[in-house]
Amino acid sequence: MPISADEVRKIAKLARLRLGEDEVALYQAQFSRILELMSELSRLEAAELPIPQAPAANVLRDDSPHPFPEPERLLALAPERAGPYYKVKKVLP
């Protein structure tokens, strides 16, 4: 399913791209190849495709909270603070 140069220009206009004639020819060939590959994929039977298998067990580590060893170091980075907390602007009306 080849794509025409006019179709490439229309796509470029929609994407607000300015293409030279050499770029139109390049993209015309690339788009045509992509459409050929998509057509080839659509002819495959789903039963022939391998199905990826998910891991049988949870591979994530347990989340165990623990205090940061140097909270004062983090608070020193804050532009403003109120005691042991960051001071931020109100975000709700």
Structure in words:
Helix 1 packs across helix 2. The chain has helices at residues 5-14, 21-42, 71-75; strands at residues 81-82, 85-86. A hairpin with a 2-residue loop joins strand 1 and strand 2 (85-86). With 93 residues, it is mainly alpha-helical. It has a two-stranded antiparallel sheet. The protein is built from three helices and two strands, in the order αααββ.
Fold topology:
Blueprint: H1 5-14, H2 21-42, H3 71-75, E1 81-82, E2 85-86
Antiparallel strand pairs: 1-2
Helix pairs in contact: 1-2
Largest β-sheet summary: 2 strands, antiparallel
Instruction: Please give the count of helices.
Output: 3
Elements, N to C (H/E) = HHHEE
Beta-strand content estimate: under 5%
What is the percent of helical residues?
A: 25-40%
Distance between the termini: 56 Å
List descriptors:
Histone, subunit A, 93 residues, two-stranded antiparallel sheet, mainly alpha
